[in-house]
Specification:
The chain is elongated. It has 21 helices and 14 strands. The protein has a five-stranded parallel beta sheet, sandwiched between helices. Strands 7-8-11-6-12 form a five-stranded parallel beta sheet. Strand 3, helix 3 and strand 4 (78-82) form a beta-alpha-beta unit. By secondary structure, the chain is α/β, with parallel strands linked by helices. It has four domains: 5-124, Rossmann fold (3-Layer(aba) Sandwich), CATH 3.40.50; 160-312, P-loop containing nucleotide triphosphate hydrolases (Rossmann fold), CATH 3.40.50.300; 316-389, Helicase, Ruva Protein, domain 3, CATH 1.10.8.60; 401-467, Orthogonal Bundle (Arc Repressor Mutant, subunit A), CATH 1.10.10. The chain binds adenosine-5'-triphosphate (ATP) and magnesium ion. Residues 142, 144-146, 172, 174-180, 285, 325, 328, 359-360, 363 line the site of adenosine-5'-triphosphate (ATP). Adenosine-5'-triphosphate is lined by residues 142, 144-146, 172, 174-180, 285, 325, 328, 359-360, 363.
Length: 474
């Protein structure tokens, strides 16, 4: 990393020299000037990480310089130096946004520490601004859509609970929008100007999860080369989103429970608890009640998290939302040009499909269709086979048909697979897990024929069934 750049300002040359020596020894890149004017000129020309300036200078004094700097870049921390602590100007300085003031006879250590603190503050501030910008960007693009009764109920619930400090547990299948709704809760809460920090408990190796959450003390384990503050502290003043909380190891669950009870964390390897101030939202696509019943999730933690339960409905339970979502995704991907439309046939297919991957799957399907489509109207052929040919999913055949005999079931299933593969018999036999001649025998046995084919004699021609259309099916 490049050395941090410090600008030292004092009308007394002996002082700039002295500070220059102290700070260069620390590895900083130091520039010195002897007036406020020169300082402002320098700052306009190149970026500095910290400015240290005397208050009392002829011409532009330290306070005026401070104001000039704030106008240019309000993120540069300014440390002001004064001969007397009681001086009114020192108090003004801090009120006007100086990071700190130092006495001119401060020890070298104090000077170094002031600069280090200023740098740390700048780093955190920059990071927060970056995060906020990213989030804002993300938030504008990722608005949550829905007008079905189920979603309206969810929105009403969010309205009611966003502003409270209560912990929320969002449950729902994969792709139903749990993370999206968690962000929505954050943006509607009074913590909206604070950070939204999220961690996926299932994606982080077990050993690292705790140190990521609670921070660690230098030397507490191999690799802990310096103190780290952990995400609970990063979320200070904002919302902490614990995603896939069902994947959290039991040992970590105990610690999380303690955090929720005491509102404080103890870093890994540390002894001193640190107070935290963040709102917790957790999400899971596992059935947490069952996890509790089966001993994989602590009951006491479950109740602590589940203060306000929020359940995201599966897309197939709110099909009314499908056209609205389709419209939303088409517009989002249009990028300036006029959005494409969906033909009635294609929309009918989208409405019938079961959407096991929920909104995420719909989003992917629309994206794919937009790539495949050339005419500006999305038609059935732009949709994946599973949507075109298998409205009800493979497995539902059995459940829907409790009165069928095994043979009837087999016949129906073979027909489904044939429709799915557009009557490509080689592929069908692969999908059915039988060889081609077995399929051939079954087709004859069940009298299965490709629809729309006129037959004069009535008898099925086996060769026709098995081979025709296999390689060049429409
Ligand atoms: N109601 C909605 N309106 C618009 N986009 C949505 C909606 N619900 C989900 N999405 C989109 O679907 C995708 C999946 O959403 P999200 O990540 O919030 O789901 P999730 O429930 O957290 O899924 P997982 O359990 O797999 O993590 C995202 O791209 C999101 O933008
Ligand atoms: Mg998620």
């Amino acid at each position: 990393m490049a050395a941090e750049k410090i600008l030292v300002v004092d009308d007394e040359q002996s002082m700039t020299q002295f500070l220059g020596i102290v700070l260069r020894k620390e590895g900083f890149q130091v520039t010195t000037v002897n007036s406020g004017r020169d300082a402002l000129d320098k700052i306009r020309m190149e970026p500095f990480d910290v400015v240290i300036s005397d208050i009392k200078m002829p011409g532009m004094d330290g306070i005026q310089l401070l104001q000039g700097i704030k106008k240019h870049d309000s993120n540069i921390p300014v440390v002001l130096m004064t001969a007397y602590a009681s001086q009114q100007s020192a108090i003004d300085a801090v009120n006007l946004g100086a990071f700190q003031y130092l006495l001119k006879n401060a020890k070298n250590d104090e000077i170094r520490l002031a600069v280090r603190n200023a740098l740390e503050m700048r780093r955190v501030r920059n990071e927060n601004q970056f995060l906020k910008r990213e989030l804002k960007k993300g938030h504008e693009e990722k608005t949550i859509i829905g007008s079905s009764e189920e979603m309206v109920r969810v929105f009403k619930m969010v309205d009611k609970v966003a502003d409270s400090e209560a912990t929320i547990l969002i449950q729902g299948d994969s792709g139903t929008g749990k993370e999206l709704i968690a962000r929505e809760i954050h943006y509607r809460s009074r913590r909206h100007s604070g950070p939204f920090v999220s961690i996926n408990c299932g994606a982080i190796p077990r050993d690292l999860l705790e140190s990521n959450l609670f921070g660690h003390v230098k030397g507490s384990f191999t690799g802990a080369v310096k103190d780290s503050s952990g995400l609970f502290l990063v979320a200070e003043g904002g919302t902490f989103f614990l995603d896939e909380v069902g994947d959290m190891p039991l040992a970590t669950q105990v610690k999380l429970l303690r955090v929720l009870q005491e509102r404080e964390i103890i870093p890994v390897g540390g002894t001193q608890p640190i107070k935290i101030d963040c709102r917790l939202v957790a999400a899971t696509n596992a059935d947490l009640e069952r996890e509790v019943a089966e001993g994989r999730f602590r009951a006491d933690l479950f109740f602590r998290l589940n203060v306000i339960p929020l359940r995201m409905p599966a897309l197939r339970q709110r099909r009314d939302d499908i056209p609205v979502l389709v419209d939303h995704f088409l517009k989002r991907h249009a990028k300036g040009s006029s959005p494409k439309t969906v033909s009635k046939d294609a929309m009918d297919l989208l409405l019938k499909y079961d959407w096991p991957g929920n909104v995420r799957e719909l989003e992917n399907v629309m994206e794919r269709a937009l790539i495949l489509d050339e005419g500006g109207i999305i038609r059935p052929e732009d949709l994946p086979d599973k949507i075109r040919f298998g409205h009800s999913q493979k497995g539902s055949l059995v459940i829907d048909s409790p009165n069928m005999t095994l043979e009837e079931l087999e016949k129906e299933y073979i027909l489904k697979v044939l429709n799915f593969t557009r009557w490509q018999k080689k592929r069908s036999s692969e999908l059915l897990g039988i060889n081609a001649s077995t399929l051939y025998r079954k087709l004859i046995g069940y009298g299965i024929e490709k629809p729309g084919r006129e037959r004069s004699g009535g008898a099925t021609d086996p060769d026709d069934l098995l081979y025709e259309g296999d390689e060049h099916a429409a």
